[in-house]
Design goal:
The protein has 93 residues and is mostly helical. It has seven helices and no strands. The protein has a single domain, classed as Glutathione S-transferase Yfyf (Class Pi), Chain A, domain 2. Helix 3 crosses helix 6.
């Protein structure tokens, strides 16, 4: 899998299906996250916590895998990925 991952990250020809399968197999269940978020801003209430931080690597790859998250997950993803710390530490491509 590392070779496929490298190609996807470089914008190569590996289909988003391969990455989607890996994300699905990793235990990331967007339906569970959607339920956990409920109407809240973050996974544990209204504060950014380690629980949210742990999901950032997966969330970065949702667009590459062509995965459309449920509404609450999409809003949460936007909140996490636009945090100043996330923007400052994101590698340039």
């Amino acid at each position: 899998m590392p070779q496929e991952f490298d190609v996807v990250c470089l914008g190569g020809g590996v289909a988003g299906e391969a990455l989607a399968g890996e994300l699905e197999g990793s235990g990331l269940s967007l339906a569970v996250v959607e339920r956990q978020l409920g109407g809240g801003k973050f996974l544990v209430g209204d504060r950014f916590t380690l629980a949210d931080l742990c999901y950032l690597p997966f969330l970065e790859f949702l667009p590459l895998a062509e995965i459309e998250p449920p509404p609450a997950v999409a809003a949460w993803t936007e909140r996490l990925l636009t945090r100043p710390s996330a923007l400052e530490t994101k590698p340039e491509h």
